[in-house]
Amino acid sequence: MATMTLVAALNSGLRRALDDDPTVVLLGEDIGRLGGVFRVTDGLQRDFGPDRVMDAPLAEAGMMGVAVGLAYRGFRPVVEIQFDGFVYPAIDQLVTQVARIHYRTGGAVRMPVTVRIPYGGGIGSVEHHSESPEAYFAHTPGLRVVTCANPQDAHTMLRQAIACDDPVVFLEPKRRYWVKGEVDEDAALDPSMDRARVVVEGSDVTLAAYGPLVVTARDAALAALDDGVSVEVVDLRSLSPIDLDTLEASVRKTGRLVITHEAQRSGGLGAEIAASITDRCFDVLAAAPVRVTGFDTPYPASKVEDHFLPDLDRLLDAVDRVMGRAHSLTGWRAS
Amino acid sequence: MLRSDVSPGRALPGAGPSADDLVQLVTPDGVRRENPEYDERVADVGDEQLTDLYEDMVVVRRFDTEAVALQRQGQIGLWPPLLGQEAAQVGSARALRTDDFVFTSYRENGVAYCRGAQPTDLVRVWRGTALAGWDPRSIGMATPQVMVGAQTLHATGYALGCAKDGVDSVAVAYFGDGATSKGDVHEAMVFAASLRAPVIFFCQNNQWAISEPVGLQAQRPIADRGPGMGVPSIRVDGNDVLAVLAATRVALDRARRGDGPTLVEAVTYRMGPHTTSDDPRRYVEPADEVEWAGKDPIARLERLLRERGALSDERAREIAQKADAFAAAMREGCYGLPDPQPLSLFDDVFVDPTPALARQRSQYAAYLAMFEGGED
């Protein structure tokens, strides 16, 4: 057990994966001598050599397509996309090839490709550096999509993703990269990365969050308790498939659901979760599920990003709403 | 004759193939031309081996024609004929070893034949009973790619894997002139050149991307694309099976030696439509078709073999019978392909089904079971 940042936990996860399996190769821009722009691959090329930790030409589609060929040959490629907003050129290869080759070949060819993407906002950066593209991937059959919220999960889930025989989009909450936590590098690789986890127990409202907003959701649960509302926080961890069983069990207990993500609302995961849980829990719901998300705008300039991103107060406002209390839609001054 | 040093002054806007630009060992009239550099690459190819190549091309043309008939008769939904491109496909594919691996587009059925695809395998996808005709690893050939150009990156990645494994196997990407406009193809060449991937970029320039002439994709010979990216290239007469074999061997030797990728532009002509749904009368000049018919890859080799007395009437008859038998087996196999079970559409999305998919599957199974006869 050691205390480390989320970045260091990812680094040690990659190191373990490279140690454990000689077919694991890393491919990305600036991941070699520089160690990646966030230093997630720091020292790995030095220790494992340029044959296994490969600096790629600056072409995301190229990296993704080359990863397909490596997987065809029996390798287990881990591709680093430098920033969320740079993944779009690679989506063609990801959606039309990586996600489907197992299906296309009737199971004859597996695509154990891991795509690491730092995602999300709150770092005061320029355009294309703060986005949350998870819904595109979750909508694509054949891709697993997971995200981590703390250093232990970062380490363990990344190793699980790399060991997985399906392609996995691994989303890293970049504004939490420097959060520190205890990491047991010898912890068993369970629970499975596709299981959600209750991180705060509560009885009145279920608050489903993932990635960077899990910390915010925990803060909201603490604040709500001061106000006499018991909020249960579920860290979804896997965005495709979504662990609806865990979520359903929580909502059956609380009867209320708030879902939050940084990504834009329309067509987002919140809509999918709201529909699925309504389908399963209609009989026990005391209120319609509420989504707290980014707005349906492109990601804005950083000086207003705090307004775009769900925060503690917006989560509490939604908790009030499902509790039938005064909230922003009825107005704070409503009787 | 690698085109690694292309002078910028040698622009050939809109230039069509000129015999002078091409590596050619057998003329359209069936006359053997000397070319010391490439002759030595095929010094082992005697009359018997040439006759084998002739046989391959005859068989390929025969089953390709049969597949068009199957489409016209409603037995398959679509077919992309390769008529006219037999030499480019056979000459290159026959240069390969079984441990090499090819990543092709959908038109490379002649390559598939040479790699060992079975007659029924060739029509499975086009009849709609599966998304792949064969297990890629069983014949060293990926499922033919529908997304134009995407496979060039896959070949590059596979080739890098071969190098990592310390073997001298080579990956070959087959693509057409249309694909050369794609970003994937350019990115593949950059990756391959910078990382010295043992890959061959084998472009069949058949002059057409559906209705678009090659001039819309390239204002200079396609072979000129390579050198600027550090990929030496060869421009070869794609209707000359011997020259294609020789050029592919040059590229293979470079790759096996660790000298990296080569671009081969095989200049050929698509004598038929893009697919059975196309109507080339809307865009092809009849005079062009006449001109290219005069460069037919099979006719020229037959002339050469007949001239040398290497192809008897009896041998020609045997070859025709073999071709007929293959086509008949393909037709019979096509008829015999069973429709997949409805619930099989849920199979193999993931290695193990997710709970959500298992749920959709069981719900749909229950729905089907409500009908008379159950899920069948």
Question: What does this protein structure show overall?
Answer:
The complex is a heterodimer of chains A (335) and B (376). Chain A has 335 residues and is an alpha/beta fold. Helices cover 36% and strands 20% of the residues of chain A. Chain A has helices at residues 6-20, 44-48, 60-72, 88-98, 101-104, 134-138, 151-163, 213-226, 244-254, 269-281, 305-308, 312-322; strands at 2-5, 24-28, 53-55, 76-80, 114-119, 144-147, 168-173, 180-183, 197-200, 205-209, 231-235, 238-240, 257-264, 290-294. By secondary structure, chain B is α/β, with parallel strands linked by helices. Chain B has helices spanning 36-39, 47-72, 86-93, 109-115, 121-127, 136-139, 150-165, 183-194, 225-228, 241-257, 286-293, 297-307, 313-336, 355-369; strands at 101-103, 171-176, 199-205, 208-209, 212-213, 233-237, 262-267. In chain B, strands 1-2-3-7-6 form a five-stranded parallel beta sheet, sandwiched between helices. In chain B, strands 4-5 form a two-stranded antiparallel ribbon. The termini of chain B are far apart. The A-B interface holds A 25, 51, 54, 56-57, 59, 61-62, 64-75, 77, 89, 92-93, 96-97, 101-110, 141-142, 144, 165-166, 194, 241-242, 244-245 and B 101, 103, 130-132, 135-137, 142-143, 147, 150, 152-162, 164-165, 171, 183-184, 187-188, 190-191, 194-195, 347-351, 354-357.
Short précis:
The complex is a heterodimer of chains A (335) and B (376). Chain A is of the alpha/beta class.
